[in-house]
Design brief:
alpha/beta; two-stranded antiparallel ribbon; 8 helices
Length: about 210
Amino acid sequence: MRAGTTEEDGRIALIQSDIWIGFPRAEQVLDRLQGMIEAPRQTRMPGLLVHGASGIGKTMIARNLSRKYAPEYDPASGITRTPLLLLQAPPAPDERRFYLHILAAVGAPATALSARAQNVASLEVRVIALLRDLGLRMIMIDEVHNLLAGTHREQRRFLNVLRYLSNELEVSLVCLGVSEAVDAIRGDIQLARRLDEHHLPTGATMPSSRT
């Protein structure tokens, strides 16, 4: 192996990785999100819906914030504190699948029951207990426009789940998606009222990745 290979490999990996290039509207969103996650708990936590064209940088904003608030292990309590949970909405509004995604995201150990044997109610109880122990402050749902793939009834039930999690855990809820995401969220009037809308215009310079 020739000298300098490790250093060169490191430079190549950096070049090929996602690079955050801030632009004013994105920085505004990040500042607002940071203020929300640092806000004291209250009965009705603030929420935000970030929407815009595909590729405008919504997911990059979410990942940038998730890196700032990455999970940290607390040796005193033996618990990994997770202030921010970033999830992608399932391909269709499926409550059970969503709860299973949450459990997988927080690294929850497998239970004696198979995943198929766990009903929605038992999954809900387990998810609430786990997230409360993690010290969660914010839930971010990317690709929220996926809700539109379901029936009106399925959409309403899934939106009820999001509102319930926010209320029960007293955490901020942030949704991200394309313009159709606005229609998805407005399917629940109560949820829509608590999520301020922030549109990212296509004319702005976007975050990008270098390859």
